[in-house]
Each structure stands twice: as C-alpha cells, then as structure tokens.
Amino acid sequence: MNAPAAIRATGIVVALASEAATIAPRKVIPGRLTPLADNAFLWLSGMGPAAARRAAEALADSGVSALAVFGVAGALTVQLGNGALFCPQRVLDEEGHAYTADPAWLERLQRLLGNAGVPLHARGTLLSVASPLLTPVAKSAAHQRCAALAVDMESAAVAAVAMERRLPFVVLRAIVDEVSDGIPDALNGSVDAWGRPRMTRLIAALCRHPTLVNELPRLYSRMQHATRALRAAAEAAGPHLGLQR
What we know:
The protein is an alpha/beta fold. Helix content is 36%, strand content 19%. It is globular.
C-alpha cells in the first residue's frame, strides 16, 4: 500500500509492540506498512538502528512526505522522569552526526499537546546508541559526554533517512527508565526485538537469579506509566503527530 502523492502523509517508526498499541487502533504486524487514520502510516521495526533504518526507508519508498519516531526512551538526566514526554530539537548519534527536528512541526506538536493539557519537554538533545545503556553509570557518562537529555536506539537512523530523502522529521518519546534506574542485563536479554517476553529465557533468568523477580513490578510500572503518556500524546496530536497538512 502506497501513500497518495498528492496528500501529505506521515510515516511513523515504532520499535516495540507496546509502543505501537498506544497509537494503532488494531494489531500491528512487524515489518509491514500499517495504515492509521487520515492517511498516516505506521511501521513496527523492532529495536536498533539497522531495523529503524529499514523501516524509515520502507516508509519513504511508500510515498510518505514526513518521518516520525514514536515510543519510549531512557533518561540521561534528572530533568526527565518516568512518564515525561520529550520532543528533542536535535538528535545525535555515537559518531557525532547531528540532525535537527523540523522546527515548525515541533512547534505545532508542542502547541497541540499544550492545548490538551499534556506536558511536553521540547528542548534539548536526544542521543541514539547501538546498544542500550543499562546502568546509571553508563547513562551519566553519556550525559557528561554529549549533554543529551535522553537516549534511544532508533531516532538517529530515521533522522538520517529523512535527511537523505529531504523529508521533515520529529521524535516524540516518553521516558521509561530514569537516570538512576538500572536494568538487569539478564532481564534485558529476555525480550525479543519487539520488546515481547521470551518466556523460556525469562524463566531461565529468574531460575539463575531469583532476586530478579523483585525487579519485575518496578519495570512493569515504569513501562505502564510511559505508555499511558504515549497514548495521551497520540490522542492529543492525532495520527499525523501534529504534521501541518
């Protein structure tokens, strides 16, 4: 399915199934173009820059006129707590390449969320990395290195495609883990590329490290709070996430 060339269509990249559920009215199949309302389109990519780049290229090839990244991120500073919404002015990758979000789109998104009473932090930099930052030490070091406020794994890859295709882009993220939160590596390895539990690995990890069971309520609560914020943002901004059409 291609987006009609005469209509400004938004292509939205999400990495996780739980993120997709906050904006899509139906079940989303990974790796396929999913129509949303009003000629917006979603692509569930899976985690990481390579997957995000493939998704952005597929959306651009389908004829969308703008690219967005939507989902959760980790905080690199106490300025952003769990559930805070962040729409960065700039995205930075680990090689130092910087990408600027479309200012008019960013302003409109901020206005729409503000009018709906949904707080949004719309200043600062987001860092994109190839591997997750799982400890407070790693997060603090990343903040000291590049002064970014939050971190994800997909936005720079999508921004690079947007620059290559001369398309506007924005990023809208909800904070899931705070800067002081650690994520046990064994639990991080117990989900698939789309953030869905791998039950065999999860059970094995809990058998090897029984105390990890104490981490599950905290991680669940963090994700629930973040996805509620994403759902509120999607309802306030609409399927095009505020793109002026």
